[in-house]
Amino acid sequence: MLTREGLNDLVKEKLLGYLFVVVSNREPYIHAFSGRKIVCQVPASGLTVALDPVMQACGGTWIAHGSGDADREVVDKDNKVGIPPEDPRYSLKRVWLSKEEEEGYYLGFSNEALWPLCHIVYTRPVFEECDWNTYRKVNETFAQNVLDEVGDRKAFVFIQDYHLALLSRQIKERNPNIITAQFWHIPWPNPEAFRICPWHEEVLKGLLGNDLLGFHIHYHCNNFMDTVDRSIETRVDREKYEVTYGGKKTAVRHFPISVDFEDIYQESQKAEVVAEIERLKNQWGIEDEMVGIGLDRIDYTKGIPDRFRAIDRFLEKYPDYRRRVVFVQAGVPSRMQVAAYKKLNEEIETLLEEINWKHGSMGRWKPIIYLREHLPTLTLMALRRMANFCVVSSLHDGMNLVAKEFVASRFDEDGVLILSRFTGASRELTDALLINPYATDHFAEAIKNALEMPEAERHKRMRKMREVVRENNIYKWAADIISELVKFEFGE
Ligand code: F6P
């Protein structure tokens, strides 16, 4: 198993003399006002959950959009702040965007066009020329920040996700010596789906500015290669998984992202977690009921309504379970300015009311407890530990780290994971109860199977899943990417 120290040693050895720069839209720590006080929050983002430990091991600079209302209060004259605040190990350099830029680049092209384009969940993408223009301009702003940060040093720039598809090309046009890798955290669809984007060629050419391009699974690499092959003049080498465009070679590889297994494992055993479980049970009046959990950003790709419908069907078919099971759904509000997200929030509230009314009793019990808020890490850890089962029912998901966090936290080797087949995680966590979230009856049966699974089988399955996540942790993910990049750049 590769540790944080192991990654640190690898970085020192392989990237000696190189500045390590991560670039993403979302920042790993957000400073926000709480009354007159400034608090530091960790956002609900798998990307930042995964990369923060990597940056803590590697050091360097993380460049991201400063989105917190108190972000400007804590930075120095270069817009930087040491992170994590209590024990700084790297610099966070904040990029400021105007409301109009945020609207066109983040809400518009990133989340109304690319997000639904890449997730096949039947939400129609919206393509607006003005959003595309703003997206290009904001990518330029990030490029300028990277170039300023690097100066004439040797640098390895690691770009994250679909918000910054044009960045590597923009950087290399002005400083071809910078090495860039990009990781695409969401699925890559097939060519037919992708080519409806009016600017699909520009997006592809932008991504082919990278030396290395990473996806979670092999299937997304193949989809990307097929899309490139059918869209632009390139040389696609399917043996070596390389694309050559305009004389420049890009290696395409899959690297399944993960979590800091050891850290979650240790943290979840702390006494505070037990106290928090007690507090939550008292607050919700939970006594002997079995507990299911769902922990998500409120996003239409996560299949939250489908999950509620399955709970409804389960209680319809097996009414004996009323008052014996409670499902806690925690949801962090997200991208609320986008119409599809507003609609989803309304749908969830309506379903919740209907299901709780239909199955609830006059007493204290109701089947679903819904927490529509950003919960502290301690509460999330308590929820994972008190759960008899955890549901991840994404309709389409690049990886899904909620599933891996659940597995990492179960040091007691207990608890059942119900996992959608349409997540990248389902390729590795084959000992979960795999479901099709669209098939409500089958999903309802999986809930029953989770509740009735014999203890020995629960342990066996959880043990196997823990081995997978322990071995393939976030440090291995980062080390594999760095080793691959070094191979291509320095011919090692
Ligand atoms: O994991 C995909 C992703 O889009 C990340 O890039 C992002 O940080 C996360 O989901 C959460 O979304 P957002 O940053 O829009 O809140």
What are the SSEs and their pairings?
Elements: H1 4-14, E1 19-24, E2 30-34, E3 37-41, H2 46-58, E4 61-65, H3 71-74, E5 80-83, E6 90-95, H4 99-118, H5 129-150, E7 155-160, H6 167-174, E8 179-183, H7 191-194, H8 200-207, E9 212-215, H9 218-231, E10 235-237, E11 242-245, E12 248-254, H10 261-267, H11 271-284, E13 290-297, H12 304-317, E14 325-332, H13 339-359, E15 368-371, H14 377-386, E16 389-392, H15 401-409, E17 416-420, E18 433-435, H16 440-452, H17 455-471, H18 474-490
Bound molecules: 6-O-phosphono-beta-D-fructofuranose.
Separate helix tally: 18
Main-sheet strand order equals 5-6-4-1-7-8-9-12-11-10
Average the pLDDT over all residues and give the rounded result.
96
Q: Can you summarize the main beta sheet?
A: 10 strands, mixed
Structural class: alpha/beta
Which ligands appear in the coordinates? Answer: 6-O-phosphono-beta-D-fructofuranose
Instruction: Assign a percent range to the helix content.
Output: 40-55%
Runs in which pLDDT lies below 50 for 5 or more consecutive residues are none
Beta strand count: 18
Based on Cα principal axes, name the global outline.
Answer: globular
Radius of gyration: 23 Å
Distance between the termini: 23 Å
Proportion of strand residues = 15-25%
